[in-house]
TrEMBL record:
Positions contributing to substrate binding: 135, 149, 247, 251, 357
Occurrences of domain Fumarylacetoacetase N-terminal (ranges): 24-125
InterPro entries registered for this protein in UniProt: Fumarylacetoacetase, Fumarylacetoacetase-like_C, Fumarylacetoacetase_C_sf, Fumarylacetoacetase_N, Fumarylacetoacetase_N_sf
GO terms under biological process: homogentisate catabolic process; L-phenylalanine catabolic process; L-tyrosine catabolic process
Phylogenetic lineage: Bacteria, Pseudomonadati, Pseudomonadota, Alphaproteobacteria, Hyphomicrobiales
Signal sequence annotation: none
Highest taxon listed in the record's lineage: Bacteria
Name of the protein described by the UniProt record: fumarylacetoacetase
EC number in record: 3.7.1.2
Active site residues according to the UniProt entry: 140
Sequence ranges assigned to domain Fumarylacetoacetase-like C-terminal in this UniProt record: 132-419
Binding site for Mg(2+): 240, 260, 264
Length: 423
């Protein structure tokens, strides 16, 4: 049987060459329809969703524990482990191949299992057990450090020695398309003597990737590089919305709190680690060399292009404001997971790890408005004479990401959020 990543594979389902969802991808999500409103697990293929619960009931897919695809999240399936993940993806690939008649020639089964994506509602794909956000782009950390501490003290002494992170809120992780209400909090601009309470005035986005942890680790145990990699089920696009003025007042001495806790948006499709294998690359040279527990024996970064579009409240179309690449990350996702567990922290199925803002070396590769507008001193010019330093009510932000193969792309769809006024 051909490997599901074989670039020559084609599906009997028509897939445009520019689609994010060719047969080489097969990302998992949770969907429902008006006719069948109960959320269940599906896989994206072109402009369709393949209903895995229908295939499971028909015994076309057997994973060893009946009913996992009728669940409203991917967690029960992820619990079954990497061997089952790989076997299931291979079986789905076989069913969708253009040279395999089992589904292709069964008109009734096709009608039940292939649902036009335009007729579906996509849901949060995982039950988020815990959420941790990292700070792992050297370019981003340097930009922020220069703004607030000066060029000679841009990176804190610990930054080059370990992935820096903080524990966020799983309760406010939402799926793409969810409206984002402007947060409220304590504000104290430099000119004020005492703080006040009110709506955030410097609302920002952060372009990130999210790691979906699909296997648990035991409390008190460390992880090897290989163990950490095998625990990763897949990746999502992630926007870690940030209230910069709330953060400025609260973050000393313990870091972000309410400035980040109000919302984190993720894409509805989880692209599996296996689908990204052909796009592995080495990350930046790490100097000084990391401590032994963080050393990597293989490339753990991915050549994954990222794009951010902003449609201001009075614009008809969005405008690209950033294009960068996940390969620039100084600390890899595997290193983040290894470090997270190094103290003995137990990891759970459904944990979500944010990569941290992804910025590149060029000005048009900055992954936040804080950087793009250089803390508000260099307003962003948009179509129609509109300017932005930070996000205003009615603004909509869209992030997209994909790995480009030979004649196909493995993509994530998009994560979108529109800002609405604070109550």
């Amino acid at each position: 049987m051909p490997h599901p990543n074989d670039p020559t594979l084609r599906s009997f389902v028509a897939v445009d060459r520019a689609s994010d969802f060719p047969i080489q991808n097969l990302p998992y999500g949770v969907f429902s329809t008006a006719a069948s409103p109960t959320p269940r697990v599906g896989v994206a293929i072109g402009d369709y969703v393949l209903d895995l619960w229908e295939l499971e009931q028909d015994c076309r897919i057997v994973v060893g524990e009946f009913g996992v695809f009728s669940a409203p999240t991917l967690n029960p399936f992820m619990t079954l482990g990497p061997k089952v993940w790989s076997q299931t993806r291979a079986r789905i690939s076989e069913l969708l191949r253009q040279d395999h008649p089992e589904l292709r020639d069964n008109e009734k089964l096709r009608a039940r299992t292939l649902v036009p994506m335009a007729q579906t509602k996509l849901h949060l794909p995982i039950a988020v057990a815990g959420y941790t956000d990292f700070y792992s782009s050297k370019e981003h950390a340097t930009n922020v450090g220069v703004m607030f501490r000066g060029k000679d003290n841009a990176l804190q002494p610990n930054w080059l020695h370990m992935p820096i992170g903080y524990n966020g809120r799983a309760s406010t992780v939402v799926v793409s398309g969810t409206k984002i209400r402007r947060p409220r909090g304590q504000l104290k601009p430099p000119s004020a003597e005492v703080p006040s309470f009110g709506p955030c005035k410097r609302l920002d986005f952060e372009l990130e990737m999210g790691v979906v942890v699909g296997q648990p680790s035991a409390m008190g145990e460390m992880l090897s590089e290989q163990q950490a990699e095998e625990m990763i089920f897949g990746f999502v696009l992630l926007n870690d919305w940030s209230a910069r003025d709330i953060q400025q007042w609260e973050y000393v001495p313990l870091g972000p709190f309410q400035a980040k806790a109000f919302a984190t948006s993720i894409s509805p499709w989880v692209v599996t680690r296996e689908a990204l294998e052909p796009f592995r690359v080495n990350g930046p040279m790490q100097d000084p060399a990391p401590l032994p527990y963080l050393k990597q024996a293989q490339p753990n970064n991915f050549d994954l292009q990222l794009d951010v579009g902003l449609r201001a409240a009075h614009m008809n179309e969005g405008q690209r404001i950033c294009r960068t690449n996940f390969k620039y990350m100084y600390w890899s996702s595997v290193q983040q997971l290894v470090h997270h567990a190094a103290c003995g922290c137990a990891m759970n199925v459904g944990d979500l790890l944010g990569s941290g803002t992804i910025s590149g070396p060029e000005k048009d590769q900055r992954g936040s408005l804080l950087e793009i507008s250089w803390n508000g001193t260099e307003p962003l010019d948009l179509a129609g004479g509109i300017k932005r330093t930070f996000l205003e009510d009615g603004d909509s932000l869209v992030m997209r990401g994909w790995c480009q193969g030979d004649g196909y792309r493995v993509g994530f769809g998009e994560v979108e959020g529109t800002i609405v006024a604070a109550e």
